[in-house]
Amino acid sequence: MKSFKFLALSIMISSVLAFAAACGNGDDSGSTPEQQNTEQAEENGNTEGEGEGSDDLAQLEGEVGIDGSSTVGPIMEAVSEEFGAAAPNVKAPIGISGTGGGFKRFVVGETDMSNASREIKDEEAQQAEENGIEYTELEVAFDGISVVVNQENDWIEQLTIDELKTMWIEDGTATKWSDVNPEWPEEEISFYSPGTDSGTYDYFNEVVLEDEPVAKAATLSEDDNVLVKGVQGDKNAIGFFGYSYYLENKDSLKVVPIVNEAGEAVEPTAESIESGDYNPLSRPLYVYVNNASVKDKEQVYQYLKFMLENAGDLAEEVGYVRLPEDKYNEGMETIEGLR
């Protein structure tokens, strides 16, 4: 990862080596030690106004307002942590109110950036337009919604999308496992789902439930850790959330392979998500940014540049799948164009 901790160390080492080399040249250098130090400082420094060096970031001040998806949250928390090491005077805490909750704040200008696990809805875009908010959509990583059951569940080896729909839809026909498959136990199913403000809920609702209501018996929460604990503690539980949260808890959960469009049962992995084999539950993750914030707030501009330079590495570190490099480069060009 392009950590500024390592950058600072590299600059220090380069300075020591350069000074040693200069001293080794003796009188042939033609300059005093003071001149040599000045020349070395100029070589190590960035062009004035570029704002890309560690010294420039260290001088930045202000805040970056960020809220939104709990799924995208781990990536952005990692970005804020690393950026904070280079720009300690910039505050960039990550709010986790869900994709919908984040957009509610973003479209009225309360935040500079909104993390989202789905694309902005037409009505949200209309609200932004009515409030004079112009924005840019950036992709940051790939995710695969992971369907999980309790480790003691020994009857499910795979699920089709139709079985998921039968199970999760609120039509009263499937409340027990045996209602989905007569060979499964006659036990009540416990459902754990992201809350209605979650982009993960919206995506699952669209792709699996085809916009039908989710089972009323489901426990809904914007906090994915609540869902994880619920499934961990109930033999008859089933839940779904982002791939990162499954990876973090894979030793205490059983992930369910999903039958894809080709009729193959596929488990979510970095490879199956990136290749698209884990369909239809693979999806991109987004960050939406207020264009005016990029133009008028140096700290927002620098934060976004840092994010795009490091998002791939950080996404992998926290359990998601990086985008092709040209996607990040394309995002960088877009941000530069907003200045």
Automatic annotation (TrEMBL):
Keyword Lipid metabolism attached: no
Entry keyword annotation includes Methyltransferase: no
Topological category with respect to the lipid bilayer: Lipid-anchor
Coiled coil: none
Comp. bias (Low complexity): 32-47
Domain PBP as annotated: residue spans: 62-309
Cleaved signal peptide residues: 1-20
Entry's Gene Ontology molecular function annotations: phosphate ion binding
Subcellular location field: Cell membrane
Keywords in alphabetical order: Cell membrane, Lipoprotein, Membrane, Palmitate, Phosphate transport, Signal, Transport
GO biological process: phosphate ion transport
Chief location: membrane
Stored Pfam families: PBP_like_2 (PF12849)
Region ranges (Disordered): 25-59
UniProt record similarity statement: Belongs to the PstS family.
Name of the protein in question: Phosphate-binding protein
Organism of origin: Metabacillus lacus
